[in-house]
Amino acid sequence: EKVKKTQQKEIENVTSVTGVRQIELWRRDDLQHPRLDEVAEEVPVALVYNGISHVVMMASPKDREYFALGFSLSEG
């Protein structure tokens, strides 16, 4: 499957962003011309306090420390 030249340039110019990946998006009404789109990736994050597991939540891998701090302050 060929990617248009403009799409190829987009692929080359993309900087690596934590928690985001590019996919080819196919539209039903235009199957001949896929386009690129970005999708947020999430990973399971377990929060453990004093050796006791309290929660496992899905979150972006970026800024996990801020996520844990925010959860701890608001829920703890």
TrEMBL record:
**Pfam families tied to this protein:** FdhD-NarQ
Enumerate the InterPro entries for this protein.
Answer: Cytidine_deaminase-like, FdhD
Q: Which domain of life is it from?
A: Bacteria
Q: Name one GO biological process term.
A: Mo-molybdopterin cofactor biosynthetic process
Q: State a single Gene Ontology molecular function.
A: sulfurtransferase activity
Keywords noted in UniProt: Cytoplasm, Molybdenum cofactor biosynthesis
The cross-references to PANTHER family, in alphabetical order and at most eight, read: FORMATE DEHYDROGENASE, SULFUR CARRIER PROTEIN FDHD
Q: What is this protein called?
A: Formate dehydrogenase accessory sulfurtransferase FdhD
> What are the leading ranks of the lineage?
Bacteria, Bacillati, Bacillota, Bacilli, Lactobacillales
